[in-house]
Prior knowledge:
Blueprint: E1 3-9, H1 14-23, E2 27-29, E3 32-34, E4 45-47, E5 52-57, H2 59-62, H3 64-67, E6 73-76, E7 78-79, E8 82-83, E9 85-86, H4 88-111, E10 117-120, E11 129-135, E12 141-147, E13 153-159, E14 163-165
Amino acid sequence: MLHWYVFQSKPRKEPLLCEQLQLNNIDTFFPCIHVRPVNPRARKIKPYFPGYVFGRLDLEHAGRSVLDWIPGVVGIVNLGGEPATISDHLINTLRKHVETINASNRNLSKSFQTGDLVAIHEGAFAGYEAIFDARLPGRDRVEVLLKMIQGSQIRVELPVEQITLRKSSSE
C-alpha cells in the first residue's frame, strides 16, 4: 500500500536524494521556498524542511534495506522503531502552504521597490510614513527608513503586513 514517508538526507543533499528516489520510481515532495538573500550569489531557493524529503511508496514491496543504501539518504524517519507515515491530506496541505508562501514572496517583490513611499498602518509606528529599503532574506519582514523630525531617518525592521504602498503626491 502506498504511503508517504519522510527521508532524512545527508547535509545539503536533498536534491540528490530526490533524484535518486525518482530513479527508483518513488514519488517525491521536496518543499522549497524562494528567498531573496543578501548575498546575490547565495541560493535563492531554500528547503522548507532542511535535511528532509518526502517519498511515496509501498514500503513492504520496496524493502526497507534497499532504501537505506540510496545515495544521499541517512534513513527513514521512525517513530517508536517504525517508519512514520504522513497522510495525503498533510502533504496536500503542505503543498498549498508552500505555494502560498512562494506566491506572497513573488507578490511582495513586485509590490515594493527600494525608494517607494509606504505607510505604516499597524504596530508601534502606525500612522507614520517611511521609505521602503529592503526585504529581509527568508522572512516576512522588511526594512524601512522611518521619516523623523527635520528630515532625519532611522532604519526600522517591520513585518511586511504592517506596510502598504503609498502614492506620491505627484501621481
